[in-house]
Amino acid sequence: MNAPRARVVGTGSFLPEKRLTNDDLAGMMDTSDEWISSRTGILERHIAAEDQVTSDLAAQAGLKALEAAGCDPEELDLIVCATSTPDLVFPATATIVQRKIGAQNAKAPAFDIQAVCTGFVYGLGIADQFIRSGMSKKVLVIGAETFSRIVDWEDRNTCVVFGDGAGAVVLEAVPGENASGILSTHMHADGSHVELLHVTGGVSRGRPEGFDVRHDALGFVDMQGNEVFKHAVKAMGAVAEEALAANGLKVADVDWFIPHQANRRILQATAKRISLPEEKVIMTLDHHGNTSAASVPLALDEAVRDGRIQPGHLVLLDAFGGGFTWAAALIRW
Ligand code: COA
Question: Most buried pick, 1, 15, 70, 196, via CB within 10 A?
Answer without folding.
Answer: 15
